[in-house]
Every structure is written in C-alpha cells, then in structure tokens.
Amino acid sequence: MLTATIDAFQTTSAAFSVGDVVTLKEGGPRMTVTYAGPVALNPGDWLICEWFDEHGELRHEMFAPQAVRTEPRSIPAGSVQWHRIGRAA
C-alpha cells in the first residue's frame, strides 16, 4: 500500500496558480502570477509575476511564494484613483 504525508507547515507554489492576483506581504502593486514552479539554477519553487508600474510600463519579477499573499481578483470601485487616470477633453 502506498501512503503519503503532507507537511501542514510547508509552503509551496502549489498554493498559487497562474492567473492568481497577489501582492508582496511588504506592500506594493497588485500583480498577476504568470508562472508557478521550479526555475533553473534556483532551488525550490518560485512565482513569476507581472504588473504595470506607475508609468504604465509592464514589469515582471520572480518572487518566493512566502513573500506574497493572495488578493481578490476584482477591486471595489471606490479604490480607483481617478487623479492618475487621464481624462479626454
């Protein structure tokens, strides 16, 4: 008989899936997970995330799963910052 055990304290990228919205636990922009798993020459699992910076440039970076937390996929309308959005005259 095959048996398996699960370490309840082990955090892996399996907790994250492509398309999840995350932020750094330290704070920062909302990011979308584009890859979750092993990365060459780096032990363990990693998350590759993409987001748009304050200038509208697309950014991407690799993070340890322990460094991020999940966020809701949608945001409340009241949280939109209109002063950053250009308006057509």
TrEMBL record:
Q: Name one Pfam family in it.
A: DUF2158
Entries under InterPro entries matching the protein: DUF2158 (IPR019226)
Question: What is the recorded name of this protein?
Answer: DUF2158 domain-containing protein
Organism in which the protein naturally occurs: Paraburkholderia monticola
